[in-house]
Amino acid sequence: MEQERIAFEILLGKERILIGNVGGEHMKKFVWNEARHCNADWELHLILKGSSKIDVEDQHYVLEKGQAILIAPGRYHKPEALPGEFERFSIAISLPKGALSQALSDKVPVGTVLDPGEELMRLASEIYRENASLMPFSQEYKEALTTQFLVVLFRLLHLGDEKKSTGGKTYPYNVTSLIDDYFEHHFADQAGEEDLAALLHLSRRQLVRILQEIYGMNFRQKLIRTRMDYAAWLLRTTDKKVSEIIGTVGYSSEAAFFQVFRKYFSMSPQKYRSKKRNGK
Fold it and tell me: pLDDT tens-digit profile of 36-45?
C-alpha cells in the first residue's frame, strides 16, 4: 500500500478493512472540482466548511457544512466547487466480500447523504490535526482514531449485527486505483487485458481473477459497463447527438452500440434521454 495515501489496515470482528484517504490528503481545502470518475472502494466525504455540489450517477446533491455523503463502489460521481471557503475530510473504505460488505451495499446501493453527527466530525478534525503532527507514535494514534471513526460510522448506519463473514480478500489502493484509472482513460480506445496486466505487473490469469474478485466482472464486462455508464451520463447531461456519443465511447458501429445500450437500459438512447430529462 502506498505510504503517501496514509492507509490503515483495521480488523473489526473478523473483517479485514483497508482505510485510505482520497486524493492524496485527508483534508482538502477550498476546492472540490474533479473529473467524473468511479472507484472500486467506498468513498466518504464530510463537509467541514462551506458547501459543494456533487452528482452521483443521475442524482444531484448540494452538501452543506456538517453533512456527509457515502458513495458506493463503481458509482460514477462528479463534484463541483461552489464559491467561498471550503474544507472536506475524505476517506476510502475497502471491504472484503462478506456479510458486512453486503449489508452496506443494501443500505447504500448508490450513494446517500448522511448527518455524521458531532462525534464523526470531531474524529475527522482530530485525524487531520494529527496528520500534521510530529509527535511520537503519530501513526499509531491516527490508526486508533480511524478505527473509532469507522466504528461510529458503521453504528450510524446500523451495521455490525450481521453474521460474521467467512473472509474475503481486499486489495491495496495502488492496485484498485490503477485499474479504475485505466478503464477511465482507455475505455474509448483499444483497451486490452494484456496492457492492463502489464501495467500491474501481473499475468493475464492473475488479472482475470482480480477483476472478478473486485468487480464481479471480467475485463470485457468492465469495459462495456464503463462505456455504457459514460454514454448514459452524456445523454443525461449534454446535448450531444447520439451519433457523436457512439464514437466518444469507443464504438465504430452504430448497430453494436444500440444493441448493447438496449441490453443495459432496456430502451433506446433517445428514449433514455427523454425519460431522464422529462422525468417520465
Answer: 888 888 999 9
Please list the residue range(s) of the chain that carry CATH number 1.10.10.60. Answer: 173-278
Nearest by Cα to 247 from 231, 268, 270: 231
Is residue 142 within 8 Å of 21, Cβ to Cβ?
Answer: no
Residues with Cβ < 8 Å from 94, sequence gap 6 or more? 17, 18, 19, 20, 40, 41, 42, 170, 171, 173, 176
Domain(s) labelled CATH 2.60.120.280 in the chain stretch across 3-156
Q: Does domain 3-156 have CATH number 2.60.120.280?
A: yes
Name the fold adopted by 173-278.
Answer: Arc Repressor Mutant, subunit A (1.10.10)
Q: How much is the pLDDT for 278?
A: 80
For every residue of 10-53, which 3-state class applies, written as one string? EEECCEEEEEEECCCCCEEECCCCCCCECCCCEEEEEEEECEEE
pLDDT above 70: residue 180: yes
70 or 29: which leads in pLDDT:
70
Other CB atoms closer than 10 Å to residue 35's CB: what's the count? Answer: 7
The C-alpha cell of 182 is what?
485505466
- Whether 26 has a pLDDT exceeding 80, the answer reads no
| Cα(87)–Cα(44) distance, integer angstroms | 14
Residue 78 near residue 54 (C-beta atoms within 8 A): yes
